[in-house]
Amino acid sequence: MINARLYLMQRLTAIAMLPLIITHLVVMIYAINGGLSAEEILGRTQGSIGWAVFYGSFVLFAAIHGAIGFRTILYEWFVPNITVCSVASIALLVILSGLGLRAVYAVTWL
Amino acid sequence: MSYQTITTDILILGSGGAGLFAALHAKKQAPDLSVTIAVKGLLGKCGCTRMVQGGYNVALAPGDSVERHFMDTIEGGKWLPHQEMAWTLCQTAPERIRELENELGCFFDRNPDGSVHQKAFAGQTFDRTVHKGDLTGIEIIGRLMEQVHARGINKLEEHRAIELIVSSNDGRIAGVLMIDMRSGEFVLVRAKTVLMATGGGPTMYRYHTPSGDKSMDGLAMALRAGLTLRDMEMVQFHPTGLLGGEGTRMTGTVLEEGLRGAGGYLLNGNKERFMFQYDDRGERATRDIVSRGIYEEMRSGQTSPLGGVYISMGHLGPDMVASKFSGMVKRCADCGFDLAGGLVEVVPTAHYLMGGVIVTPDTRTEIPGLFVAGEDAGGAHGSNRLGGNGVANSTVFGGIAGDQMAEEASSIQHHAEPDQHLIDQAIERNLNPMRLNGGSIHEIREDLLNTMWEHVGVMRNAEALSQGLTKIRALRTELYATGIALKARSFNMAWHEWLNLESLIDTSEVICLSALARDNSRGAHFREDFPEAGDLNSSFFTTAHQSRDTYVINRRPVEFSRVKPGESLLASENALPEEVIS
Amino acid sequence: MMKHRSHPLWKAFLLHRISGLALALFLPIHFVILGLALEGASALNTALAFSDLPFVKAAEVGLILLLAIHLLGGIRILILELTHLSWDQQMLSRSAFGLSAIIATIFLWSAL
Amino acid sequence: MNSNAKTLTVTVDRFDGDTHYQTTHEVPTRDNQTVLDVVTWIQQHDDPTLAYRFACRVGMCGSCAMNVNGEPKWSCRTHVSKVVSGDASLSIAPLRNMPVLRDLSVDMSEFFDKWTQAVGYFVPTKTKDDPLSEITSDDRARAKANQSIECINCGICYSACDVVAANDAYLGPAALNRAWTLMNDERDGARQTRLDAVSGDAGCHNCHSQHGCSTYCPNLLAPASSIAGLKRQTLMNLLPWGPSDD
Ligand SMILES: Cc1cc2nc3c(=O)[nH]c(=O)nc-3n(C[C@H](O)[C@H](O)[C@H](O)COP(=O)(O)OP(=O)(O)OC[C@H]3O[C@@H](n4cnc5c(N)ncnc54)[C@H](O)[C@@H]3O)c2cc1C
Ligand code: HEM
Ligand code: SF4
Ligand code: F3S
Ligand code: FES
Fold it and tell me: In this predicted complex, what is the ipTM?
């Protein structure tokens, strides 16, 4: 099911996400104080290449990491067929990175 | 009755140290021949080699020598060993240890300087026992087993050998008849050469240490095939078997020798030490003496509640005991006993059978193509086996058998024609309990175990032995009138219990007869009516073979082919020190 | 019958898996909402206003809890697998869970 | 255990080759009684059709493992008083994750096939004509090998692992534990081959550190740690800068 390469990718992306998620969480705690508004979010992020790279890489890491994990769970708990699981996980990868990058584009570019 | 036929080149019965070693050697020698192991349990997961705790005797260290190991073996066996076998054992052991370590992957405990650690074991003049903690057997069989699994050797697991089948033309071995215990079907495995390595196993005593799969099937088959056995009166008792009462399989399992060596006390029912009444060394006397001491105490009624004596370690400090004997303490704790601080009830327990089939030092028997090695073969130990010589014996001779079988099988064109009459007869005999009305074989078994313990046990005399003989014969009659209620043959444990019992009764009778025939006391065999060892120079060993329906016991003189009583192969010393347990 | 699962580390595994799965399934929704910014701040605001509803809030706090659980539990696994530190895994998983609860509480606090 | 109880109610999961069913037995209690003794009593006195397996009786052969109250145990060394609940009942079933042959006897052949697949056997670099390797008693790699060596191939860890249950191909904790032991054996000549064998689709990376293996191993081995060791070592192979595994 999982071989060394997939394993490595899952662990590397997990490690890479650590600082990203922690930063995100801290910022969110800070931001959430007083309620979240679109203007606030966008005001902070729009036009910032830094945030674009930050969230862009997060999206890709999360997509890879999540897709590999999803594939395993699907196989072990639901569909014990490697091809089906791989296709589904690639679909998740595409959806996550597609929607994610679109969101990053939306909040940082306009 | 129909049966299935399987054909192989080399067939091995049993997967202990002897069987597995033979398979590996045979496959290595003749990779193109098919090698098949048939075993009563799962491959490598049954038999006694796995249960070896103490270790493996081998002359490796500077100062030790094959000669010294040999002299200890001869002295320990009270001049009864077959000297060429004992010599082969001692001489080949170093090579086997190197093979186990370098080729098969065993790893034995080391000294700080990187050399292999060798500990002291009872009755030896040199610390020569190689070991892996106190689980040496697991290391040895674990490694052998995984090699066998990896090397394309055929397995017939849960196959019970029931009859050696020879050819009607020339008496050569033609194969072995078995029961596939899972399906209950009969299977004839035809082979060019056969090794019998079913490991003896004196489990016909109330208290015994060997694994539950061993029931002397091999020796019973050998008797029926007309082979001659030797030294059958020589049953070694271990002094400290766990006593857990009736209805538990824990009873009889061994508590290690080292406990007494480390200073453990044996206490009788009054909680008093008693061993100094029997020997100056107290609890540290040799196995046979301690066993007899305990037996005396039990006979005089000074027993613990379950009828044995106590072993007590607490005075050495429970923490020290728990750390030094952690495996043993945990085992006892799992089963509800406090070995480190409390009293544990113990009893002498039948441990090893020195007797077995007469073979040549290259494991050949009177039947061409049939080889015997390990505990099934007699001769190497004489009247007593040194602790640590058991596994050396099975691995040394198993390997030799493998080489011999490969060589012989390679030179044979065609399989011998099995004697159909023998097959039919054997199937009939084994189906007999199925035809009779079901009865309680359990009680027959209990009777046999008690009879052997009471009449043919630690201490013997003519009267008790003759009574024992009568009882054993009566039990055979009873067995043959008692059937198995459960008629389905697949996974029928009751049927196999019946067959076990048949083998045990046959061999019990032989043990009893041989004990009657030895009118002196040597090693494990102690006659209260003949307590002296007798003249060493005219030492004899007993032989037993079946002739029609009776067992014939004879004596043959021991051949002192290498050393005579009073002499030694060791230049500097003539007499060896008394055995001591360290 | 499934008593072999009744030890703390199996539960830690289960929690890690459920949280990871929930995250993987929630993230697309999160991204869709943020993507609404493409249609202008007002659309995003409408969506975010939705998040003022109590049950949505609860769900969000739950999600933060899951994220914290997964993150801290993940750190535990990384320590176990990739380092030689032989820390007590049961202790680690309990602490990870405890800490996650604290983080989620802080979030709840801030969000109120 | 309820000391007043004279009998124990034992439920056994049975399989006769076609159908699965359960039987219930009233077994007399004794002071010294293991789960193996209970099973033996049932077979000898109540139901001769019951099939089970044992050999050594002392925790060395690993033949007697079964599920006791839902947990995999060696039956010969499990005292009844340690597993019986207040209502003096006991449930016994075969090990999981191996095909049941009959009642409590399972087919272990796949378990051992995987052992071989994981190259769980020594590959020599020397012969019997060479002297024994000199390895000091404080050798670090050896100390690590020793930690995982005393395996009795009982299959308990294999039975406790839900990844094995979910993924037929997964080599499982016992075989991987053995592979790790050999990776620490400096005398072995096939370490790269073995590393490849345990890094494939069925290999160590499928383990989710559930720790059922280490929790239930009756010999107190820690296959989970061994598997983590394998994971580190394979990573090292992939990454030149990976964590060192000295
Ligand atoms: C508890 C214990 C501790 C011991 N400690 C030591 C020690 O420290 N040092 C030492 O040197 N020796 C020790 N011994 C003795 C040693 O274990 C034996 O001498 C040796 O292992 C015998 O090896 P074997 O290969 O002949 O037989 P075993 O290892 O007993 O194997 C016999 C095999 O034959 C199979 N078999 C039996 N009947 C049949 C049948 N009808 N058909 C097919 N297969 C069959 C069995 O299932 C088994 O696989 C100990 C013995 C015991 C019981
Ligand atoms: C820094 C943050 C994260 C860390 C440290 C982390 C760590 C890990 C680790 C170590 C695993 C492997 C568990 C195993 O094999 O049993 C894993 C699995 C998984 N992760 Fe993450 N992860 C993080 C973030 C995420 C995110 C954001 C998602 C959502 C997409 C996610 C989804 C998953 C999934 C679905 C699995 C599979 C779970 C399983 O197989 O049981 N993780 N994570
Ligand atoms: S690792 Fe432990 S549980 Fe697994 S097979 Fe070996 S002894 Fe049994
Ligand atoms: S139980 Fe299974 S998941 Fe891993 S830690 Fe043990 S192998
Ligand atoms: S019977 Fe050998 S381990 Fe239980």
Answer: 0.94
